[in-house]
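Cross-check.
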Amino acid sequence: MVSTKVSLRVFLSGLPILASARITSRSAIEWGPCEEGEFNTTLPVQCGTVAVPLDYTDPDSKTFDLELVKIPALIQPSRGSIQLNFGGPGFSARGGAVATGSLLQAGGTYDLVAFDPRGTGKTIPTICTDDPLYIGQILGETRASNESDTSLQRLWARGQVDAHICQHLGRGNETAEFIGTAFVARDLISVVDALGEDGLLRYWGFSYGTTLGATVGAMFPDRIDKMILDGVQNPHEYYHAHVDFEGWADSDKVFSYFFTSCIEAGPTKCALAALNKTASELEQDTWDFFDKVREAPIPVGSAILDLLVVKGIVVEQLKDTFLWPTTSQLLAVLLYGSDMEAQAVLDPLLNRAGISPLAGFNFTQALWGIHCGDRIPRLGSFEEAIPEFAKLAETSRLMSDVAASITSHCAQWPWHAKEAYPGDFKVKTKNPILFAGNTRDAHTPIRSAYNVSSGFEGSGILEVNGTGHCALSAPSECSFAVIAAYWGNGTLPSTGSVCEAAGPFDGYTWADVFEAGTATNKTERIERRTAYRWWSS
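Predicted model, tokenized:
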């Protein structure tokens, strides 16, 4: 999943305006004002609906309205629409699209269009329970997988209980089998048809959004115009494995790189570098701290730091290198400072983005509904799961604690998606797909981009020698040029080429990229720098 703070509209507005035919739209969508107060934005966003079948496998299926949001290109007529998905699965694409386009109102030749995927937001949301008692039990009883000798058994039991709650107490049980990724892929094509442009899909997907993109590309290869899949997830594992092992293959390496790059950056950029320790010593001290909180959770202000909370914070921080200086401050005070110092650094992280426990639980429910419903094989018992948990622990010491829970839930989920893509992701699309990613990504390793690209004949790969989740988390003039060329005329990067990016503690942003070569006047440079300060906050 990618942070929706990166303003794609800002990014697209920086692309050079290439000579290309504008698309005349004969849209069947009646675009109009969005519901008052729904979006906190000054942009002229528009909303509309498309009627789609609840069950694409049933020709007599009833329909429901898929709610869309559009951020029009300011240069009209536009070159067409780009549909967006920000990953998860479980994130709202409508809210994400507005957030990414809410800061700059200049430039842009593509309309941005998004709908909440099934199971999320306003589209058949997965609601296992809205009872505070059950929500408190579910959130309060989630544990790290190696917190104790019985943690795995408790996670397995928690998965069974939650599946029971969802099946017998949840709202929308009658629609649970209709929220799978294959149906969302069909929704993308339904939106293409309703847009009335050229009948082809333009799509930009991040993290899980790359699995959705690979699925729609494989199911409808003749309908693809342009598609960028950034932060590539392995769709083979997503559908057919019990655990997404490949997703965590580089997590521990990136964790180690955090300390190495900190020492290289020096104490003025990384607080840990001022402690007269080597990178290896700092990393070992951090693992020792994890062991400490596993045995004895620490109260800090209003929070209790147990192993799952501490690792969860670190895992989230690894996604975005702009946060690494703050992460180094946090670790410095947790490992070597006072409780008061720790609280001062920790509170902003716990409150970051204003995410409430309920909002987090809504995402969790959506994740269960979509990912678990999509997962084809199931485990019949805890004994069958033990080898999977062991392999997960071997794959990543860092991630195994936080990734075991979804394995327990999916293994016992009571529903299967009504449709699953049955193929092997070996197709040739009408126009080639561009896969993208960073050399160091703790959540979607670059090897996944190469693995999936090998099945899509003629596709290209944008590898950025940077760090963070998805290529857009590592600002680079080179990658900007590659993306500009691809959206402009479909040009792919040369095979084997790698774009360079600044170091993770250098503070280099997309605003700097624009200022270096694409912003045309002082006002535009200031607006873009303001936008990217918000993106990185």
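Residues 126-172+205-537 form one domain. Confidence is low (pLDDT under 50) at residues 102-107, 519-537. Passed to J.P. for a second look.
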